[in-house]
Amino acid sequence: MSRDRTPMANARTRRKLAVAVLLSGREKFSAYWGGALARWTYEVYSRLGSCFAVRIFGFPTASQDLYPLSHSSSGFWRACDVVSRIPFVRRYEDHLWLRALLPQVRKFDFVHIHNRPQWARILRDFGYKGRIILHLQNDHLGHWTAGMLDQLNAHLDAVVTCSEYLRTTFAPKSPLLAAKTRVVSNGVNTDLFYPRENVREPQTVLFVGRFHPEKGVLQLVQAYARVLRAHPGAKLVIGGTTGFGTHAPNSYVRDVESLATSIVKSHRGSIHFTGYVHHDRDLPAWFQRATVLSSPSIFQEPFGLVNAEAMACATPVVGAKRGGIPEVLGDGGLLVDPEDVEGFAEALSMLLGNRDYVARLGRAAYQRCKEMFDWEVVSRRWSSLLQELAHAA
User: Fold this and answer.
1) Could you tell me if 15 and 152 lie in one domain?
2) Is residue 331 part of a domain?
């Protein structure tokens, strides 16, 4: 696809480059109601205000909940909400939403799309001429054929994935798209997440995440029952809910809670369910107190931000040997098969019984996080990418 780059090339000498960020789906731009995409957007672009003029586009978010960056929406969100509920018509929701945003978006030099590859072609069909970056935090392209990926390539200037693992789910099938694909990791606010060894507890295993089968909470509770054989004083803390800021108990939650109750009664263990954990206000303290974080994802986790946040607190991670988790941990934790409950329990027990080893892993985790996942580092990488694309022929 041929597009005129001259206006952008001339404009960059006179003004800041303008970036429109499109949050995916119905994600709100909020620390409480939003998720990892909203946080990534705020943490990175709040650090790039001197270089780029940024506006976030998404569904309405109450002013008291908004991150402090420029945010816009469209009155068409109500129509989109109605359309999304109508069979055979819901497929047009994306077209309606992007058409409503286009008058605002078309004047930006860049459009940064989170997790919605199909939006690139829609924007091009509507006449957007600037540069489009597709930013993937989940495996949205792994099932696409080589032909589909080559077609997508024609509408994009760059694809960014949060891990090399995620890149490998699609890039080998399309050399054209692979050439445009970069890895820029997720990050950690090290002003919030940092070590506090004076509050560290000696035998506490922590889990934080969505209360969902794919996160491996049930397997963790099963492993904890075995850990109690060697460490009867060990504690397990489970933080999280079934959704962003909400918790709807379901059959899976009830199964986990029933097993936990049984373990506490029969083994006299200690299992604490915290419910929702406020990310900025409460989460750092949980990491700082924990001996280890357990990240037993059953699915192929693309990154797993809690891992890096724990590492920033010098808390080693026992993580699943799946997806992008090994890339994140490096030498800052141990890898296990979470479905091998005995092996999982052995890894936890070994750490709980070896303070010196835990301390060494924690120091390695902290150093790795500072070098690779500090938001300052991530922001510089993102800025370099935008500048490179702006200067491309």
Assistant:
1) yes
2) yes
